[in-house]
Amino acid sequence: MSLSSIRRIAIMGALALGAFGAVGCGDDGDKKPAPDAGGDGDGDGDGDAAGQDAGKPALVGKSTMCGANKEILCEGHRLVTANVDACCTTEDTCGLNADMFPAGDLTGCIRRDAPGVPSDLCGSFSDQVETDKDAVKDDKLLLIPGSVPLKFPGCCTPQGLCGAQLSVPTNLAMSGINLHLGCMGFDQLASSLPAGDAGAVDPASLPILPFCNPVDGTAPTTGKVPGAPTFTCGCGAGATSPGADGFPCLNNLAKEVCGADAPTAAQLAAVPEFICGCGADKTPAAGALPCLAFTAAETCGTAVVDDTSPALAAIPEYICGAEGAPATNTLPTLKNVPTAVCGKLAIEASGHPALAMLPEFLCGCGDGLQSAANTLPCLRNVADAACGAVPVTTDAELAAIAPLPNGLCGCGDGQVKATACLDNVPTDVCGSVAKCTTVNGTGTAAGCPEGQLCVDGNDDGIGAACITPG
């Protein structure tokens, strides 16, 4: 129900009730007419069809039966000036026909007395979307900031979304007004608010987000919250979006709290195309390229990336696009991006954090260069003196990193050379991939061209090269 709708309801109520003068109230706070106003002779004025005189209008809406077996009696309602019929929601719970409200933008069958728990947090949230900026911030949703103020307390829906308890106004409990809508979440309430109220407010921009713990109404510290995409998680206590990585995050919520909703096309349009899902149950790994937390790996951003994109500023300059990259490339690449497009984070020397996860034999090709003179793998665009930090001291460690030819061995500890050897690696550490199959064998039977001999150059039993005897 929109704020303007509730304003109109309250104003009509004020007129009908003589500015909230003497009013008869039932047990639930619903407005009751004067004794026997229904003309049914029972004096309770409830207008029940069973006790109502023929031809007299009902003083509450019609009742109906709901539930899987139609075993639940759902009663109609008198909302200030209108009779509102009961209806069955899509969940087969009791509802009210919003099309019969005296005014408002809500339509269809709205759940009656929707459940929720009281929440001071959500009351504070309500204060952020008040139209009357001069109103006292009192942890109540001020629906009418004029002479007839209605205030409703904050609540938390079972889905963990802040809302307003649209039942009996806390400041006019004896007025006879009871909307009987219960705890209406921010999403439903905001969708019908006019411009200038919460309908014009982006929830993600607020210091206090409309998310809560459905058990006690406090701020969530773990789990998932509705109304936010799966890849958006908390910024941390006292922190606001965007996070240090440039990604949007949930203001002032713990980092362990993430969104529950699948990303929409509009949300993915704001994400660079090379950032894809980490996996449905995974989060970004330390030192790895950014990915979308708790999102399927095949889901990627759709914002096109070119050489001028700001998203490349935090990507190391040796990481380039995957499209068109050599099949032999073993370095991380940017999905969906042309191979000529690379990161912009400059690396000038060893010890840079972006090199911490790379083996020590991977060094720069040279500033602005894409390959090295010795044709061995190198880091594109990186200064030639900058190398990875992970030590390699055994054949097994080298084999676990990359399938390199057995004839390719280390240059020596701390040695960086332009020849065909592995920088910084001991000379007795060599690749594990054989060049030929039978040491001291000849020709095709040994895996060499006819007339050539398969030799073991490293005394490890692996055919390292084919040579012509002589």
Structure notes:
The chain is mostly beta strands and 470 residues long. Among the domains are: 1-32 and 63-201, no CATH class; 346-431, no CATH class; 434-470, no CATH class. The chain is 8% helix and 17% strand. It has five helices and 22 strands. The strands form nine sheets. Strands 10, 11, 12, 13 and 14 form a five-stranded antiparallel sheet that branches. Strand 5 (77-79) and strand 6 (82-84) form a beta hairpin. It is elongated. The model is unreliable at 1-56, 129-136, 138-147 and 193-201 (pLDDT under 50).
Topology:
Layout (H helix, E strand, L loop, with lengths): L2 H14 L7 E2 L5 E2 L31 E3 L5 E3 L2 E3 L2 E3 L1 E3 L5 E4 L11 E3 L5 E2 L1 H8 L12 E3 L8 E6 L5 E5 L15 E4 H5 L32 E7 L27 E5 L3 H4 L51 E4 L9 E6 L56 H7 L8 E3 L9 E2 L29 E3 L9 E3 L3
Parallel strand pairs: 15-16, 17-18, 19-20
Antiparallel strand pairs: 1-2, 3-4, 5-6, 7-8, 8-9, 10-12, 11-12, 12-13, 13-14, 21-22
Summarize the structure.
This protein has helices spanning 3-16, 120-127, 186-190, 265-268, 395-401; strands at residues 24-25, 31-32, 64-66, 72-74, 77-79, 82-84, 86-88, 94-97, 109-111, 117-118, 140-142, 151-156, 162-166, 182-185, 223-229, 257-261, 320-323, 333-338, 410-412, 422-423, 453-455, 465-467. It has 470 residues and is mainly beta.
Question: Key terms for this structure?
Answer:
470 residues; disordered N terminus; 17% strand; mainly beta; elongated; three-stranded antiparallel sheet
